[in-house]
Design brief:
The protein has two domains: about 130 residues, Probable inorganic polyphosphate/atp-NAD kinase, domain 1 (Rossmann fold, 3-Layer(aba) Sandwich), CATH 3.40.50; about 140 residues, Probable inorganic polyphosphate/atp-NAD kinase, domain 2 (Tumour Suppressor Smad4), CATH 2.60.200.30. Helices cover about 15% and strands about 40% of the residues. The chain has six helices and 18 strands. It has a six-stranded parallel beta sheet, with helices on both faces. It has a six-stranded antiparallel beta sheet with strand order 8-7-18-15-10-11, with no helix packed on it. Strands 14-13-12-9-16-17 form a six-stranded antiparallel beta sheet, with no helix packed on it. A hairpin with a 2-residue loop joins β10 and β11.
Length: about 290
């Protein structure tokens, strides 16, 4: 695709990665040579050899034309929560093993970035979820989710009862260790580990995957992304938690309702120019190996 000229690039790195310090310094210098301004969050700026403009991490995406994420999929998920309605493109660069979200390898960083600055790149638009917690009819928490919303029991709890409705229609009450509501992007994360299907990342669908269900015929369910999912916490004496993208969340009380809908916001990821989605699947999941 070809977009407006990129004048300012945000850089957010996983600060404890050994490779990050060298990459951040080189990237800041390279962008300066291209006449592109940079903005770093404070942790990333501590890795730069010279003083650079900084902002708080949540503020970076709203002040730049492109965000470069240096780290792994978890680092990119943390950044995705802060992307505003401008849908700033994210270039995810993996500093370790190839990622599902950070699909650009470190050795491809500068050739890929050169193409992006020239307007020659492809993107993948990923749906997100608005996840709300309602307590006695009042919204007490709200989150933006790229991968998944997970309701699960505490470490010492027994199985929990999770009444599930889709557009107001009763589906079932899952008696299980938990329930995962996943986007296609998140279908290769916790949902896959719990036995859920791999869903092509740009499909308009959601996946409901029970975690260790008591009834073995409770199987993962693929549903349209236009529906409203409601999950009612029906276990009065158990510890139950809601976790979003594996990074944030809250405890759930008895009869709390978790309402999940497709968000009007999308996350725009810049695609690797050298790898397609199926190559990433083969590499990450070791398909075809003996």
């Amino acid at each position: 695709m070809s977009g407006s000229r990129i004048k300012r690039v945000g850089i957010i790195a996983k600060p404890h990665k050994p490779e990050a310090r060298a990459v951040v310094g080189e990237l800041v210098r390279w962008l300066g040579d291209q006449g592109v301004a940079v903005l770093l969050d404070r942790d990333t700026a501590a890795l730069a050899p010279d003083p650079v403009p900084t902002a708080e991490k949540p503020d970076v995406p709203g002040k730049v034309d492109l965000v470069v994420v240096l780290g792994g999929d978890g680092t990119l998920l943390s950044v995705a929560r802060f992307v505003d309605d401008r849908e700033i493109p994210i270039l995810g660069v993996n500093l370790g093993a190839l990622g599902f979200l950070t699909e650009v390898a470190l050795e491809d960083l500068f050739p890929t970035l050169a193409s992006v600055l020239a307007g020659e790149y492809r993107t993948s638009r990923r749906l997100t979820l608005t996840t709300r917690v309602l307590r006695r009819g009042t919204v007490v928490d709200e989150y933006l989710v790229l991968n998944d919303a997970v309701i699960n029991k505490g470490a010492l709890s027994r199985m929990v009862n999770l009444e599930t409705l889709i557009d107001g229609d009763h589906v079932t009450t899952f008696r299980a260790d938990g329930l995962i509501v996943s986007t296609p992007t998140g279908s290769t994360a916790y949902s896959m580990a719990a036995g859920g299907p791999i869903v092509y990342p740009t499909l308009n669908a959601l996946v409901l995957t029970p975690i260790c269900p008591h009834t073995l015929t409770n199987r993962p369910l693929v549903i349209p992304d236009r529906v409203r999912v409601e999950i009612i916490q029906q276990s009065p004496h158990e510890e139950v938690f809601l976790t979003l993208d594996g990074q944030t969340g809250c405890p759930l009380q008895y009869l709390d309702v978790v309402e999940i809908r497709r968000s009007p916001r999308s996350i725009v990821l810049i695609k690797s120019p050298t790898r397609n989605y199926f190559e990433i699947l083969r590499t990450k999941l070791k398909w075809g190996e003996r």
